[in-house]
Amino acid sequence: MGRAEREVVGRGTRLAEAAGRVVEDYERAVREVREALRPIHDGLAEQELKGIPVARLRDVTEGRLRFGELEKGGFGTVQDVLDAGTYRLRQTPGVGQRTADQAIAAARQIADAVRESVAVRIDVDRPEPRTTALVVALNVLVEAGPQARRAAEAGSALAARLGTVLEDARPAAGRWRMLLAGREGRERALAAVAEVRRLTEEAERDGVPEQCAQASVDLLRHPDDIAAWVDFELRSAEYYSLLAEISGRGPDTAAAEGYLPDEVAERVREQRLDDANCRVSLRGYQAFGARFALAQRRVLLGDEMGLGKTVQAIAALGHLAAEGQSHFMVVCPASVLINWTREIEARSTLRAMPLHGPDRQEAFADWKGRGGVAITTFDALRGFPTPGGGELGMLVVDEAHYVKNPLTLRAEAVTAWAEHCERVLFLTGTPMENRVAEFRNLVRILRPDFADSVDDQDSVAGSKAFRKAVAPVYLRRNQQDVLTELPVLQHTDEWEELSAADEEAYREAVRAGNFMAMRRAAYARSERSAKLQRLRELVEEAADSGLKVVVFSAFRDVLGVVRDALGGAAGRGRPFGPITGSVPPARRQQLVDEFSSAPGHAVLLAQIEAGGVGLNMQAASVVILCEPQVKPTIEHQAVARAHRMGQVRPVQVHRLLATGGVDERLVRILENKTRLFDAYARRSAVAESTPDAVDVSDVDLARRIVAEEQARLGVTEAGAAGDA
Fold first, then answer.
1. Structure pTM?
2. Domain range annotation of the chain
């Protein structure tokens, strides 16, 4: 009943105050987002209501409302009625109290429905004070990351637990208080002190004080407007994810849950998801997808391309890691192995271990000993011993349609691994509704007992009937169902590891000192080109979803290689174009029109400086950049041809990049040296019309990169960097 007790109470009080502060800081940051969002959202709703004729009020009142007198009184829209209010409506000849009340009630009902459906989209090319305020407010929470939310949640729970026991423990902090407390009060105080000590030591052991302090620091930042806009452009998906979460205006629940039957959906909802290992926030439908994989254990996630199947898989792995699992395996085509490695490292705290190349057996042994997420290819998987029972926390198979033929060696290897793993997650964006035989083969690997129950008649009955029949193992969501507030522009850097043939062509270009040849070396050996293989996969996935694709390159010969690679593939017809500098303007527009009017999937090829200016390609939902550009504004203008007014679906931009060479140097140099200035400068009309005004010198950049690559590869210059 002295110093020791006072110290315990003091530590508990300080901890409770720190926990309370982080809760206040987080709530204030969320409140600032809501306050910035409100005028934008209300303005959009009002604008829409101004376009709804007053006659629509009759539909809401089932024809009981006499709206003719309202129209005669000058009330032409639903917003006019709301602005007028009951008193002004009653001043209109022929409008009594009952009609006025009915009109206002009906108008409010329509307004509520409009407010629920209005989606806020942020236009990076037309920033204005209201959207800037929203982006800045969101930036605080995005930069703080999900760790801030977790700290606030932990702080709230801790403050609540400490609040009660601290009150009971206070008499123990002073001798006279203890004497006056009576025997029961003293016993209660001493028990409370013990509980405060336990809670405090537990929190300190878990690092809660440090987490709360760091979160408060992050949440009290005051970001610069320009920096916030630049960050929004780089990772807009995270901003929109957070915006949907805070606003509560996500997609329709049934659509987000893939129209699963109630019993399956309820089981998934009950599945807890621990996101402690995630560095990014998940959208609601993504969290549901991760829960589906965990709750159903052996499943196929078939979301349409662009919905984040990778991050859902990573979230499921992170949850299992938080529960104590240590070893995971991802199997994927070689073309996306680097992407998987980078995504795991960027979006989670998990250790990524690529098992590829000549040292893969050593890497496998290291993974076996230390754990983490191993990433390997279908072919390499055959060279590793299958795991023992319970050894692997989850097996993830990306582009799972690669194993749809059970007679292939890759399917045999995946099947053997799946048999020794309790949890298996297949990922594919290829729709399965009309490919029941292929789907049955995949399900046979996941759930042999369930495969024979997949009936061809389910597909004939329609996609919803098919989904209901296969709900225990299959979840698919489409963009149009769940992207109500997702960014209309999504950037993905597709990192590829050069094949041996690619590497040979690249070394030849470096030896010659030819910068332009270095940039297109990845397409010089088309039959073994890693980039070209990934491009084919992206086009095929877009084709399966009925999406139109524009392929940009700075080089005509690269476009020729792409045209030959895609021509007539899978019976889908040759690509349109290419649009090049030698094609007359009228013919360029004709090619775009033919591409736009083609039913369903189509591909248009364009030289980036010829097709990236003056042509509107808003029919395209997928843009593929064959290589990074020396001038970032050229990429921006090209993408803007598709991402503009008239585009009704999100635009996915895939930039194909090769590791370890000119692409990586270009991306790093341009990001580090010019991104902030360029992002600010190109908001002006001058920058839009004159890219050279803000871009770094491509000649100087070329010479620098050529010299660095020659030094790195140890080759003797046989030509001049001036070839660039």
1. 0.67
2. 1-227, 250-482, 489-723
